[in-house]
Amino acid sequence: MNVKDSEHIIGELSESYTTTENPKEADLIILNTCSVREKPVQKLFSELGALRKINPKAKFGVCGCTASHMGEEIIKKAPYVSFVLGARNTSRIKEAIKKEKAVITDIDYDETTYVFKNVHKNPYKDFVNIMVGCDKKCTFCIVPKTRGKEISIPLDLILKQIENLAKEGVKEITLLGQNVNNYGKRFSVPHPKVDFTDLLREVSKIEGIERIRFTSPHPLHADDKFLEEFATNPKICKHIHFPLQSGSTKILKAMKRGYSKEWFLNRCEILRQIPDIAISTDIIVGFPGESEEDFNETLQVVEKVKFEQIFSFVYSPRPLTEAATFENQVPKEIAKKRLWRLQDLHTKILEETAKKQVGKVYKVLVEEIGMGKSDNFFTVKLDKDPNLLGKIVDVKITKANKHTLEGELVKDFK
Ligand code: SF4
Q: What does the pLDDT look like over 273-285, one tens digit per residue?
């Protein structure tokens, strides 16, 4: 989401600025920030300081989620910062630049009908926002406080944008939102009733779009209608990011996730019936109140589902969140040890699953010379033929490493 927000900022400023890889020659340096964990927030100030040393003449701006929750405190801490622009206010970037010391952090701001100028680095794939904000109240998460309440972007605006991208040669789109499969819950304009499955069906009718991805779906909203569409729509890539967070129903309750371990496992059981599907997830280790038993339940879920990818982190208390006030915090050392155990288990699972990849034939979108992504989101190294760029080709896997696959072309490309 932050990558797309950065592209929106670049698009909005494209009449007055061009981008540079060299901070020394920049007139304007914008840091687009995340605040989902503590580390990126700490990094903001060290990064600002380092960039200021390299280029003291540049104008500095801070955007994104940390901008939303820290606001003018950023300017107090780093007085050379000229503006602060929240994650919900990206469309107001030009206004922020014009006004010295502007602090725009309105989380009720509605930009769901604003059409951003489109910029995408990769000519064959792009991200498309389908909603802003989040209505959930997960007790560990700062996002509702930085991105505001959930509003869906009108269907016709999304489809128009994707049609335009298809005309430009984009083949793969990723639909973006905090809870994509809750799409249609609320619009800020009069709108016919529509849900995420309806949206997927409409997007897949667009000529030129060959692959559809989305992130992130919420396990709570993974109803049968959605799973059926996911399984049967040939344009939908068979990779799903399905954030577990914890394998203990007790902890899921404390997190206010809205689903149980059993519900999650049942959804994964249905998903695993799809041939060659890959499931990735997020797991928080050491959430307040997590006992050894709760953690073991997480390990059991990991064993059962055998996720292809896990983003795992030690719980980090965030400001403005309920869980930060919980008294039963787990000591960092215990949480770290649990994280290592989880990661060890996952490494073993990956070694097992990697072996099973050899001999499979995957459809790969060649994104750079010699490199592409399979339908189920593996990075695949293949022939270094520039003629393959942007094509979807069949690749037979000849070697499987932990994070990448290697293969050779089996058919003429389209
Ligand atoms: S669903 Fe929960 S974790 Fe995801 S953005 Fe919303 S509050 Fe945060």
A: 999 999 999 999 9
pLDDT tens for residues 20-52? 999 999 999 999 999 888 888 889 999 999 999
CA 216 to ligand 1 center in whole angstroms = 10
- Rounded to 5 degrees, what are φ and ψ at 373? -120, 135
Quick check: helix, strand or coil at residue 322? coil
Nearest atom of ligand 1 to the alpha carbon of 257: 2
Q: Write down the pTM of the prediction.
A: 0.95
pLDDT of residue 414: 45
CB-CB contact of 160 with 82 (8 Å): no
Quote the tokens at residue 302: 């990991």
7: left (phi over 0), alpha (psi -120 to 50) or beta: alpha
What CA–CA distances, in Å, run from 99 to 84, 92, 104, 116? 11, 11, 10, 21
* Dist. CA 168 → ligand 1 center (Å): 33
**How far apart (Å, rounded) are the C-alpha atoms in residues 78 and 245?**
35
**What Å distances lie between residue 7 and 44, 344, 370, CA to CA?**
19, 36, 25
Cα of 357 vs centre of ligand 1, distance in Å, is: 33
CA–centroid distance, 178 to ligand 1, in Å, is 6
Ligand 1 mutation pick, 68, 69, 107, 141, max ligand atoms within 8 A of CB: 141
Residue 340: Cβ within 10 Å count: 11
Protein residue whose Cα sits closest to atom 8 of ligand 1:
141
How far is the C-alpha of 392 from the C-alpha of 397, rounded, in Å?
Answer: 15
- Could you tell me the domains of the chain? 2-104 (3.40.50.12160), 110-237 (3.30.750.210), 261-356 (3.30.750.200), 361-409 (2.40.50.140)
- The 10 Å Cβ neighbour count of residue 403 is 10
pLDDT score, position 121: 82
